[in-house]
TrEMBL record:
Protein name: HAD family hydrolase
Keyword Nucleotide-binding: no
GO MF terms held by the record: hydrolase activity; metal ion binding
Pfam families reported in the protein's UniProt record: HAD (PF12710)
Length: 223
């Protein structure tokens, strides 16, 4: 058995699910449009530039989720999946996932986006294992707005992946072949510790880094 890891946003999806969730909340009138849109775009620009403070962002994102009772939040997320995510799932991304799954590879999505937003997306993509930022919930299942543990971003993806593998009785180095597909230079730490890093729909910084290190680059969304 080999290992296949995938970033989510702009890798398996041609969009950023966290950003689009925020835009969905604005569009549906669930949050104050001007203020939320301003902060959401500000954080997204910081992410693209590699200057985002992940804890600060997650507190903002999870704090927004905590405003809503869980039944209302879940209904909103179902609408988000129907209107935004499902239409964005491309056959090319599914084919890449299925190729690894059909080969018997242990497959997981490793994303900096929080688990509440991404769990239904992982299910829609047919991926059982998800490594994502974990929101705290109360006894009733409502989100509190707090983060459990540490962010799954940058070097945090490496740490969380190692913990997940350990729980399954594996180590990262125990796989003869380990793939990680990502679009972003923010994921260079995890790309650097697998045997087969693949720059996938790479941004300019990652594309340059990949070329310098002899990593392959692929484009999934040219159709």
């Amino acid at each position: 058995m080999n290992l296949a890891l995938f970033d989510l946003d702009h890798t398996l999806l041609p969009l950023d699910s966290d950003y689009e969730w925020g835009q969905f909340l604005v569009r549906t009138g669930a949050v104050d449009a001007a203020e939320f849109d301003r902060r959401n775009k500000e954080f997204f620009a910081q992410y693209q530039a590699g200057t985002l403070d992940p804890v600060q962002y997650l507190e903002f994102a999870l704090g927004t989720l905590a405003r809503f009772p869980r039944p209302q939040l879940d209904a909103m997320h179902r609408q988000f999946m129907d209107e935004v995510i499902q239409p964005a799932i491309r056959p090319s991304a599914l084919a890449l996932l299925r190729r690894h799954q059909d080969a018997g590879d242990l497959t997981a999505i490793v994303t900096a986006t929080n688990e509440y937003v991404t769990s239904p997306i992982a299910r829609a993509l047919g991926v059982e294992h998800l490594i994502a930022a974990k929101p705290e919930t109360d006894a009733a299942g409502n989100l509190t707005g707090k983060l459990l543990g540490t962010p799954t971003q940058g070097a945090g993806k490496v740490a969380h992946t190692r913990v997940w593998l350990e729980k399954l009785g594996h180590t990262l180095e125990g796989f003869e072949r380990s793939h990680f597909y990502s679009d972003s230079h923010n994921d260079i730490p995890l790309l650097s510790v697998v045997t087969h890093p693949v720059a996938t729909n790479p941004n300019a910084t990652l594309k340059t880094h990949a070329a310098a290190h002899g990593w392959p680059s692929i484009e999934l969304f040219n159709d």
